[in-house]
Design goal:
Elements (H helix, E strand, L loop, with lengths): L1 H25 L3 E6 L9 E7 L5 E9 L5 E6 L8 E5 L3 E3 L6 E3 L6 E5 L7 E3 L4 H15 L4 H16 L22 H23 L6 H11 L31 H12 L12 H12 L6 E5 L3 E5 L4 E3 L1 E5 L6 E5 L2 E2 L1 E2 L3 E3 L4 E3 L9 E9 L6 E10 L1 E4 L2 E5 L3 E8 L6 E5 L2 E2 L1 E2 L3 E5 L5 E4 L12 E7 L6 E9 L13
Parallel strand pairs: 1-9, 11-20, 22-30
Antiparallel strand pairs: 1-4, 2-3, 2-5, 5-8, 6-7, 10-13, 12-18, 14-15, 14-19, 16-17, 17-18, 19-20, 21-23, 23-28, 24-25, 24-29, 26-27, 27-28, 29-30
Helix pairs in contact: 2-3, 2-5, 4-6, 6-7
Length: about 500
């Protein structure tokens, strides 16, 4: 008994410590409410999987069943143990908005959403749809490229929110547009309209292709594959055309741009639309305008300056600025006319976008295309075309001149008057040994050769014209001096 009394406080303390540890590590409960929607999915089978660090799904944790309207409301315990979670809906059936066909969700073509964080003991809204399935696909792409899961979830949702002009659509509750009139057009309504547009697009395709084996979940699956490279172009990461299901019907490269816009318009005019929504409704029209303006790429690069004529000196530099959407700015490859880093012929460019013009720009100018491309997403790039016009030029670029004689060099300058200076071997105006320069009334320069060739002179001599205010703007010509045997000069001929 004495021993029990002595160890009892220790046992109680150990118990409370263990219980606290259990609460901390097992986590608390979380309440989830929402709907599974591709049209309401009746009796949807909702499976929770622990999401592995590499984006793959771990073992099944728990399963719940939605009601007849696709809605669910359940409590999940020990939530910390299964976060982050992949929610996979692979059962239940829905009536397709466009065709009216009854379609069953399957393990081969499920709907998905990722859950990265929750509010314990609070209501967490998660609505599963084709669009959230696209978010999970894009998230996986980012995770495979080394982005953390939390950042991948946030970035993917933000990109698709922006693309569809919907704010946090995973929290929106889409109404069924096929069974009742909509009095107020909200973000939830527009969410449903985008999803209905996906169905309508497939219906239009099948009117010409006539393949009964293809249904809307094949179309969603094709979009999931399409988004993996960050661009809706109808092709996979290997640049191969994506087919719908096992058919020979290719996914269109405009499926998420003009194709989606037209399909939404077609649905609004169809008898299946019972919502009362019309194309000319202000809010609907705004959505269509936004979707019409979308490019195919979710990941984007913008270059400044845009296409322009650039007056630039030989060897002069110009900084291009790149802004990116969806990935880091330091993950770009720069090229000039298809050559990574450029070349001496077309100019070079650094990995920070600093362009250096070639040393020899034709007097007529030249055009170069500068491209910034994502290192991780090869299809994502931006290009600008720059017309190079010489700021200054001298003609001819090489000349052989007899001692005591003169040679006129043509000077071409950028439009507008600038103050120039002339040098021989970097000596302003020149001197008796190198020869001298004189500016002519027509703007050209007259070179006057020296009376003799000094033995220490090295050829060619460099005649340079440059801007006084911007010395980096200059042009050069190479001069070689010679004399004839009959010239009365005791100096050796350097030729």
């Amino acid at each position: 008994m004495m021993i029990y009394r002595c160890v009892r406080p220790f046992i109680l303390k150990l118990f409370f410590i263990s219980f606290a540890f259990f609460l901390q590590h097992c986590g608390s409960t979380a309440i989830f409410t929402g709907v599974v929607f591709k049209g309401p999915v009746r009796r949807a089978v909702i499976n929770f999987h622990k999401l592995n660090p590499d984006g793959t799904e771990g073992p099944l944790s728990q399963t719940f069943i939605a009601d007849e309207s696709g809605a669910f409301d359940f409590e999940l315990s020990n939530i910390k143990q299964i976060l982050p979670t992949s929610v996979v809906v692979s059962g239940g059936e829905f009536i397709d908005e466009a065709s009216g066909d009854t379609i069953t969700l399957s393990k081969e073509y499920p709907l998905r959403i990722y859950i990265g964080k929750v509010e314990p003991s609070s209501e967490n809204i998660i609505n599963v749809s084709p669009l959230t399935t696209l978010v999970t696909s894009l998230s996986n792409t980012f995770i495979q490229k080394g982005v953390s899961q939390a950042d991948a979830f946030q970035k993917s949702q933000a990109l698709l929110d922006s693309y569809f002009n919907l704010k946090e659509f995973s929290r929106l509750t889409p109404p069924d547009l096929t069974n009742k009139k909509i009095d107020t057009i909200s973000q939830d309504t527009l969410y449903s309209l985008v999803i209905a547009g996906i169905s309508q697009q497939l219906l239009t395709i099948l009117q010409t292709q006539d393949d009964s084996s293809v249904h809307v979940l094949h179309f969603v699956d094709a979009l999931v594959k399409d988004i993996e490279d960050g661009i809706f172009d109808g092709k996979d990461t290997n640049n191969q055309h994506i087919m719908l299901g096992s058919s020979s019907i290719p996914l269109s490269s405009t499926a998420m741009t003009t194709g989606l816009v037209q399909s939404i318009k077609d649905f609004l005019k169809s008898s299946r639309n019972q919502s009362g929504l019309k194309e000319d409704d202000t809010t609907v029209s705004s959505l269509l305008t936004h979707l019409q303006s979308n490019s195919t790429s979710l990941l984007k690069i913008s270059l400044t300056p845009e296409n322009q004529t650039l007056y630039i000196g030989q060897g002069e530099t110009k900084q291009l600025e790149a802004s990116t959407q969806g990935f880091a700015e330091n993950s770009l490859l720069w090229s000039v006319n298809g050559v990574e880093g450029g070349s001496s012929d077309v100019g070079t460019i650094s990995q920070t976008g600093l362009y250096t013009a070639p040393n020899n720009i034709p007097s007529s100018g030249m055009s170069v295309t500068i491209k910034a491309q994502s290192k991780l997403y090869s299809k994502v790039y931006s290009e600008v075309s720059i017309q190079l016009k010489v700021a200054l030029s001298l003609s001819p670029q090489t000349a052989s001149i007899k001692i005591k004689e003169e040679k006129e060099f043509e000077v071409t300058v950028i439009p507008g008057a600038i103050t120039l200076e002339f040098l021989i071997n970097d000596v302003l105006v020149g001197n008796e040994t190198l020869g001298t320069t004189e500016i002519l009334g027509n703007g050209n320069v007259l070179y006057k050769a020296p009376k003799k060739i000094e033995k220490y002179l090295e050829f060619p001599l460099i005649l340079k014209v440059r801007s006084i205010l911007a010395p980096e703007n200059y042009a050069i010509s190479e001069i070689t001096l010679y004399k004839k045997k009959e010239d009365d000069d005791d100096e050796d001929d350097s030729m």
